[in-house]
Amino acid sequence: MKNPVYNGRWGGLCLSAILIGTLSACTGGGTSPMTPEESGYAQVYSAYTLAIASGPGQPAALGKADSVIDGFISTYPASRKLDAVIFFKGHVQYLEGNFDKAKERLRKVISDYPSSVRLDNASYYLGRSLFQQDSLAAALALFAGFETAFPKSIYAAEAAYYQGASLYILGKGGEAQVVFKHVMDAYPTSIKRDDAAYYYGRCQFDQKAYAAALATFQALEKSAPSGPRADNAVYYQALIQYDLKDYPGTITLMQALLARFPVSVLRDNAEFYIGKCLYHQGKPGEATARFNAVLALTPPSNVSDFCYYYLARIDAEAKNCPAANIDVQNLKNKFPTSSLIASVQSYAASLGCVIP
Hints:
Layout: H1 15-20, H2 24-27, H3 36-54, H4 59-75, H5 82-96, H6 99-112, H7 119-132, H8 136-144, H9 146-149, H10 156-169, H11 173-186, H12 193-206, H13 210-223, H14 230-243, H15 247-260, H16 267-280, H17 284-295, H18 304-317, H19 321-334, H20 340-350
Helix pairs in contact: 3-4, 3-5, 4-5, 5-6, 5-7, 6-7, 7-8, 8-10, 10-11, 10-12, 11-12, 12-13, 13-14, 14-15, 15-16, 16-17, 17-18, 18-19, 18-20, 19-20
């Protein structure tokens, strides 16, 4: 694998040469003016690195890189650096979200330049493009063989992680669990290590191996208390307690999540589960307040339908049939295809509230 940096003459142009237009700083000797092709390549590299530094969602930098790269390809179609430039183009298109075009360029690097030092780069981003488009079987085929083909690649850990992620989404949790554990053990300093640990715990949770999952999530929270997966780790610890019917324990953990992570995307779920626990504890008033708090959120929560469902149950249990009817009508209006409608209507009817 060759990370796209420059440290030599035409084998790679150093940054100082790009800035001053000569290769003297790279060679350590006298001034050696850059050829037009070398200068063009240096401009490509400069625009590409700026685009990478800007990241996705920066159309100006990405658009400039696109333009400079296209100009080089049309001007120097026989350049011996074309494999690098075509990869740059594919990577930029990936960042633009133009995955079809990215795949076309990256496949060209793989097929036309099998000896390229950027073969691993192209293979990795081809896999990522396929993953982004939910072509999971094809992505898995690439990621599964990546470590063997490119054992020293800087993308080895990430490719292994996306192998596990592809397996997990495809419903192959047992296989995914093995891969995530491999990432944790083989790449302890990888940026994907915490993600792998999180999904390793998710696999255990899905298998109802609660003791093992709890240990995994606790270890993740302890090792990275401010990390991007810390709120997830607390949330799944709480879900384990909920599944074990430890409602006070669930409430304590969900409240900790709300206190520690005020902008977490899991806040509405945490509020909802606190409401469910209060409901199971026979505290309908407090539960109602929690469910209504979730329904007041903007944008609407992904658990809004369940909130209407539980509000209807609470009102039906209180023999407040008109209120239960309103709850069900809200559920029907906002979620007309929800399976919860028939379920709560049946439950309300068993308590004497007939809701059309």
